[in-house]
Predict the structure.
Amino acid sequence: MLSLTCKASIKAVIYLGSVYNKNKKSSIKEVAQFINENEHTVGKLLQKLVKENIINSNKGPNGGYYITAKQKNQKIIHIVEAIDGEDVFKLCGLGLNKCSENRPCPFHNDFKPIRELFKKMCSEKRVKDLYENVNNGLSYLIG
């Protein structure tokens, strides 16, 4: 359902949230290591997240990536829509271009409520909701 880039973006934002209380700015290398992703890919996605005002960055010796109090309260759907677009919640479960209510794929009727529940979850969950579980050891970002 979500692209690999979108999943990595969510993990990166959760990581930045998890270090929010430490007033820490993180480098591309730190983020990439913590979420177990390629540095080049993480660099590009962090730039996109800054452009979309999902996270912030500062340049220079004390620079890095971070989130603000307002950003830690943003809904996960904001990240998903910035990276994958709004249509991700309308895509076919089998990836067919012509799947629709009038011409459904074999998964259509079963997948539609799952897709709607996922959109609801992304609309309700905040970045803060997810990183608090990481900080408490109840959830993990690496496998």
In short: The chain has a mean pLDDT of 92. Strands lie at 56-58, 64-66. The longest helix spans residues 108-124. The two ends are 19 Å apart (CA to CA).
